[in-house]
Amino acid sequence: MENRSAAGHAAALVTILIWGTTFISTKVLLNSFLPVEILLIRFVMGFLALLIVYPHRLKSAGIRQEGYFALAGLCGVCLYYLLENIALTYTLASNVGVIISAAPFFTAILSHIFMKGEDKLKKGFFVGFVAAMIGICLISFQGTLLEFNPLGDFLALLAAFLWACYSVLTRKIAGFGYHTIQTTRRVFGYGIIFMFPALLLFDFHPDFSRFNDPVNLLNMLFLGLGASALCFVTWNFAVRKLGAVKTSIYIYLVPVITVGTSVLVLKETITWITVAGMALTLAGLLLGERGTKA
């Protein structure tokens, strides 16, 4: 049991380490691609990679199971990323970063309502949530005043809620007993299908000549093979081993990893407020993990 738990924590940590650095690749690609183009290409690439790695067909038990796969693809692949990107056009990136970090709280509430036998919440979880959110605010706002942008902030909050839905759906799908790569690929497939209506709204025009630039190609490969194919498998594996709530708590680490990457790659400076925020966020993570009991 301890080995399974350790494997789940390791998978969640690897996932967050990679997801915490994806902002650099996305920022570079936005100079040449629309947000919806990046989204479609990375998940098509991820789908194909998973098909090559594990080409066995998933034969589901019926329409009810397919419904779970479809909802997971809609919530976690299509709508979550679209709403997050749209939110960034209406509100500050710092607002989005903080609001998205509320996903573990929504996950805990949904798990309590819909998942019988899932992690039970103790006081430590809520204390950890408050500590982590204060820490993330310190990291994101750097002592400046919070600026509310109702539409953008609401879209970010909705994105956080949808990621919580995805986590709970993934936990349910894990109970079907299929291989994690098979289920992840099926979810990707539905997510890609749901993206097509959005392509019409955002004036999508394929232009593969943009990949002649090796910078674009390498960054898209990182998002497609690393942040999508690998990370969704490791995240879903972690949810299977730890549960939706324990795994989602690792989301608190994303701003910490983002800051570390900014310092190392972009040579940005770090302040004492940022250090304090990172310390509080890490403390919130530890308290949150101890505040859940299966």
UniProtKB/TrEMBL annotation:
Broad class of where this protein is predominantly found: membrane
Pfam families recorded: EamA
Protein origin, superkingdom: Bacteria
Spans through the membrane: 7-26, 32-54, 66-83, 89-113, 125-142, 148-166, 187-205, 217-237, 249-266, 272-288
Localization (cell): Cell membrane
All copies of domain EamA, residue ranges: 8-140, 151-287
UniProt similarity note: Belongs to the EamA transporter family.
Protein name per Swiss-Prot or TrEMBL: DMT family transporter
Organism of this sequence: Diplocloster modestus
